[in-house]
Amino acid sequence: MFHHNRLSPALSIKRGLGTTLGAALLVTTTMAANALELTYGSSTSPQHPSIKYGAEPFAQRLSERTNGEVTYKIYTGGTIGSAKELLGNIRDEIVDSAVLVDIYTKADLPLSSLLSQMLILSDDPRVFAAAMNETQLLNCPKCVEERARSNLMAFGFISTGTYHLLCSQPVNSLEALKGKKIRGASRMGTMLQEMGATAVSISTGEMYEAMQRGQVDCIAGSANWLKAYNLSDHVKYIMTTPLGSYFGSDIINIAISRWEELTPDQKAAFIDLAPKTVADVVFAYGEENNAYLDGAAAPQVERMEMDDDFKAELQRQRGKEYGEVLSDAEARGIEGAAELIAAFQASVEKWRGIVAEIGDDKAAYENAMRNEIYSKLQY
């Protein structure tokens, strides 16, 4: 693993020069020269788990670890770019880091988005978040290359809590689903369409207005989106049957052009903080999600379970997902798709075993990722 007991250049100077006025001036000058303020963009609110439990604590820890030499200024609410614009803004050096949702930028990240679009497979967000990080960071050099073309280095993918139907009316059966207008991202929308619903493709930032105007009857998303996106104004029913989760949000990343400005110690600190941040967000997302599912949060919303016909169809859809995604990728000429999907499947099974052993121990989950993934990164 990385070792951080070496002194940073600025701190080494500070400790070696004593207390003379000249030494103090030199320290100040050196630290100012080494200070680096990075910018971070998100289309979500400051209360979204990716910010509240992810970007904000990560930025604070990074500043502490680097003695204030590397800091972040975080812009939320889309002020520095929408979800669809942020990758391009990193490429164009408008922002240094961001919450990146690769299904909005499939043309730029075809291999990366190949995995995250399979959100209906995610029956345990902890498993799929860890498998995504292992596959993306260690087992897919072509994914690293495609990110590099957008001036991007990635170090931390997180998963939402489990997805559910969040509706303005009861939609708790396969029959009731037919004809309903449902916001479903990527292949979640494809599945719902095959089940008889009308899939509506909109970004998370557009969900509130779509429900307000009656353009959608339901949102397929994490239950804590009632808080994160203020959907509690319109959602009256939560279908508690889990549909999957989105495990492709890249929240710890940096423009390559800025990464090259970091010292070796600063780079090591950046990477060393990643597994804790991923674990914190994944577990917090799950805890918030569960509070909405069990009624502790938003008790005025009615909870309903999907019927057996729906559950059987959901399992049938999951059973053919890997094959359909591979066929679609090959039809679109995406090179390396078969190898990537095979590597991801193997990683999912590996992490099923790890998570089954450690259960709900967040520290053990963090340590497992540190040992299995982050200790092996080359930078």
How would you describe this protein?
- The chain is built from 18 helices and 12 strands.
- With 379 residues, it is α/β, with parallel strands linked by helices.
- Strand 7 (181-183), helix 9 and strand 8 (198-200) form a beta-alpha-beta unit.
- The model is unreliable at 1-32 (pLDDT under 50).
Low-confidence stretches: 1-32
Rounded to the nearest angstrom, the radius of gyration is: 22 Å
- How would you sum up the major sheet? 6 strands, mixed
Percentage of residues in DSSP E strands: 15-25%
Distance between the termini: 12 Å
Taken in chain order, the helices and strands follow as HHEHEHEEHHHEEHEHEHEHEEHHHEHHHH
Let me know the average pLDDT.
90
Shape: globular
Q: What kind of oligomer do you see? A: single chain
Strand order across the biggest sheet? 8-7-9-6-10-12
- Helical stretch count? 18
Query: How helical, in percent, are the residues?
Result: 40-55%
Give me the secondary-structure category.
alpha/beta
Number of strands: 12
Outline of this structure?
This protein has 379 residues and is an alpha/beta fold. Helix content is 49%, strand content 15%.
Features:
379 residues, disordered N terminus, alpha/beta, 49% helix, 3-stranded parallel sheet, 6-stranded mixed sheet, 12 strands
Topology at a glance:
Blueprint: H1 9-16, H2 21-34, E1 36-41, H3 49-65, E2 70-75, H4 86-91, E3 97-98, E4 100-101, H5 110-116, H6 125-138, H7 141-148, E5 152-158, E6 163-167, H8 174-177, E7 181-183, H9 186-194, E8 198-200, H10 207-212, E9 218-222, H11 225-228, E10 237-244, E11 249-255, H12 256-259, H13 264-272, H14 274-293, E12 302-304, H15 308-319, H16 321-331, H17 337-358, H18 362-372
Parallel strand pairs: 1-2, 1-3, 7-8, 7-9, 10-12
Antiparallel strand pairs: 4-11, 5-11, 6-9, 6-10
